[in-house]
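Q: Please design a sequence for this.
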């Protein structure tokens, strides 16, 4: 297993449509394992293959264990995923993306989705996801189509940046400096 490098917005590979996975076997399993390891190392809830420069249709997801959410604490590897049903109701929620560190936005997504996919061994699976997991699935499937969460944002106030707080420096003497005001 290895941690792969995550691509950042601006990289053209994040804007391409990924191709269906055709080959199931040890190489795909190794790729999925790397994606899981990369996602955990970056503290993400999901990671799609194009985010590590692999233009194939698969993603991984994991919600940290939460007693109130039975979908949490489970690893998902979805290959060639397709949304086959989606709730007509949508919900707004805050999203971030490992390919856009420090950026957050409010995005409307379907409250629940049914996703048809294959597992890493090529066995057909069907997952009904709701709430946060449904949001992650929709976000990751977007990545497979070259779409980023910012593409869904219509109002500037729905996108913002939160920079990590800097550690305060120890015992910095306070220096008062007269600053000329620009005219
Ligand atoms: Ni993302």
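A: Design:
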């Amino acid at each position: 297993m290895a941690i792969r490098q995550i691509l950042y917005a601006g990289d053209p590979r994040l804007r391409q449509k990924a191709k269906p996975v055709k080959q199931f076997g040890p190489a795909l399993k190794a790729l999925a394992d790397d994606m899981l390891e990369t996602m955990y190392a970056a503290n993400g809830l999901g990671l799609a293959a194009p985010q590590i420069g692999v233009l194939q249709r698969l993603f991984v997801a994991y919600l940290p264990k939460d007693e109130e959410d039975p979908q949490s604490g489970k690893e998902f590897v979805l290959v060639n995923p397709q949304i086959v049903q989606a709730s007509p109701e949508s919900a707004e929620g805050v999203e971030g993306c490992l390919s856009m560190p420090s950026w957050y936005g409010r995005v409307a997504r379907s409250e629940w989705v049914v996703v048809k996919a294959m597992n890493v061994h090529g066995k057909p699976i069907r997952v009904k996801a709701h709430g946060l997991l449904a949001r992650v699935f929709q976000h990751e499937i977007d990545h497979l189509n070259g779409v980023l969460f910012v593409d869904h944002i219509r109002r500037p106030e729905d996108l913002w940046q939160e920079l990590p707080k800097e550690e305060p420096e120890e015992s910095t003497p306070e220096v008062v400096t007269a600053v000329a005001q620009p005219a």
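Q: Thanks. Anything notable?
A: The longest strand covers residues 75-86. Residues 26-41 form the longest helix (16 residues).
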